[in-house]
Amino acid sequence: MAKLTSELELECPCCGATLVVDTNLGRIVSHREADRGDKPELTDAHRILQAAEAKREALFEQSFAAEQGKEDALSRRFEEALKQAHKEPVTKPTRDFDLD
Prior knowledge:
Elements: E1 7-11, E2 18-22, E3 27-32, H1 45-87
Antiparallel strand pairs: 1-2, 2-3
């Protein structure tokens, strides 16, 4: 693809993309991404969307169940604290001023 003598065609060591660099300008003139084998096909779009919808639904159900369980746990903790409060004697709170 390098047409001029001042252009260098380089391959990126990280992603494998092809870069054309103009040495006179000191800039990248062209960029072409490397072909990936894991690109989804358009024919798989319906399956991918269904899988994403199922994942969202599962996460929602999990979150919903956790929120329902949280209310039960909080009410149990409140009942336990209330029972403990009834067992303890009522005392006058100590203040810093009273300690002198």
